[in-house]
DNA sequence: AGCACGCCGACT
DNA sequence: GTCGGCGTGCTC
């Protein structure tokens, strides 16, 4: 039998199927969708079996070396999905398949140099002998880094046949093991009990425990449950009453937490109206995409939960995507509470091993629901009954590296394969999605009231220019300051939002206007107070804060703009005694830090929660009655056509944190452009008006949803090279596409240099361009040689989300 | 990716 | 005349 294999070599030249014979002893095991190890050129690589065949056109075909899986890791559906992904994201096949699997299933490669025969050690050059005196295998990387000059000698020894290059493919998979004990013979336990002497009271207790629970139990649990000690257990093992074994277990990241089970809540009339059509498609096994446009606090989650219950009742599975779980622990909690151990959780905070274990639970069918971030859309279920994408508009659903897919598109693909509903939920849908819903491509379901008649918070907008005029130079307006003071005295909590981490946004010389910039990127450096360093948020470069201006030597070098660190400092100055929790990338880097900070806030250990983007989502604390946005325009003026949309979405979302329960909420938004519609319409809670307004802007500028866009970005350490290549690509695009397509550029990317690489781009705006895929593939093909060498990079992004 | 093959310049 | 630079092409 012949198998066709995609090999783990992500280049243009190898982006196809290779034929391999299956040796007789592997014939009974091999299946489509399994990982295999195959010889490829001089080495061995991992690959995926895509299809089988009885014959091959080739004369010489090698045999597969090993099968890595017992059951296929990719189902037929996922293999098909991978093919679709290859085209829609313009990536290599291998890249598409690997994106679907947890990192633990990706192979690791190692090259070793082996001494063929210890007796022939004298045949290798003298300088090399020390390495092989006490061992016959040497790690190539280790050797190479120590002795560059000896490489030719190694080569010669290999060609002489004394040494041999060995390529090892290692499966990264690790299973967590735990030591367990179980009775040697269950039936014999009571017999053993009688034979023990009276002095062995402790041992008797353990045996009695096993009579009650005669299954294997981890030693640590046994000590706790039977109130015994290691010594006692050991004695019983020596007497052959118990046996010790190693058992493979799943690492359960939520193991130490218990979840109180909840029952479905009674639905409000509006919720019933919304869930009705969803139930309908579930019952009729129809594919349909729904957009639930529901204001914050309107009870979308309960809709999700009850739809999933229905699906589980049909013996089917559910995928729930959330923007970033570590940011929304409350969401996970609600799923765990409702479905208990039927839920697997996949998010970036888990270790490689933990992710793999969660993946395995999905793969072997022991869970029915997965709640996860973007990549969970590839969960290897075999009978999906519903897919839900919460906060549908979030940028995290778009992967910004290859394969550059949008989870929403993948979800549509999978849901239509399984004839099941896809639900998109958001208080502020992306324009693309809402436009499709209005056109009837998606079915629109609206929930424009909060449950239990909780009113939406009142939003007040403060013009910071007026504040300045009236002599207030602090970062808090009078209104916000008064309200903050008021909350503290009443014992209620506030949330302060600022979209900038660090201390100051930039450092400038007051005499000459010099701004400290990253030497590797075209971006200004941010001062971090705690470390007293200037940091680049793009490449991680850091340097000491200069005492004098490096351009004119003046001492008048100052901080401008405020980051979260500076706000924190300011609060302690103007509101002494206020307890503040700051949440940004810098305070939440450590594992579990997120939850810790949020728990502390929930327990009332702080009056003010100050943070960046990450506090905008999912927080639901009854005691928050005030939300303050310090600088609403910070994202408004970014060079991105979605800047207004993002501002509106973010402000609406942050506002939604206030007054979600009994206490009414208030929001104060500080801005320098109060008249801008994306700020003003937040005050009125009017998404529809915002949609109409923004749509007219997009129409005028030929942007999505009226046009699709694709960006071809070129980067290289030399600016002349970048410009030259981008120009050639630009004219090629103009030449190849229809005259209805608009090709813009080449222009420098908004951040023209990152990590010492210059970046230029062309933007294509189009409505219907059937040849686009072929044209883009041709670009890749043309520059294959140079991109493979690594100096030139061409990235093609269909439907980019962040234009930076 | 990794490696072999092969064609030009600077050495014994 | 040979050694070795890295451009080019191939891997079932």
UniProtKB/TrEMBL annotation:
Binds 2 zinc ions per subunit. Signal peptide: none annotated. Coiled coil: none annotated. Residues 544-701 form the Helicase C-terminal domain. GO terms for cellular component: primosome complex. Keywords: ATP-binding, DNA replication, DNA-binding, Helicase, Hydrolase, Isomerase, Metal-binding, Nucleotide-binding, Primosome, Zinc. Zn(2+) 1 binds at residues 509, 512, 549, 552. CDD domains: DEXHc_priA, SF2_C_priA. Component of the replication restart primosome. It catalyses: Couples ATP hydrolysis with the unwinding of duplex DNA by translocating in the 3'-5' direction; ATP + H2O = ADP + phosphate + H(+). GO terms for molecular function: 3'-5' DNA helicase activity; ATP binding; ATP hydrolysis activity; DNA binding; zinc ion binding. Belongs to the helicase family. PriA subfamily. Residues 281-447 form the Helicase ATP-binding domain. Its EC number is 5.6.2.4. One of its GO terms (biological process) is DNA replication initiation. Its cofactor is Zn(2+). Initiates the restart of stalled replication forks, which reloads the replicative helicase on sites other than the origin of replication. Recognizes and binds to abandoned replication forks and remodels them to uncover a helicase loading site. Promotes assembly of the primosome at these replication forks. InterPro entries: DEAD/DEAH_box_helicase_dom, Helicase_ATP-bd, Helicase_C-like, P-loop_NTPase, PriA, PriA_3primeBD, PriA_3primeBD_sf, PriA_C. This is Replication restart protein PriA. Zn(2+) 2 binds at residues 518, 521, 536, 539. The gene is priA.
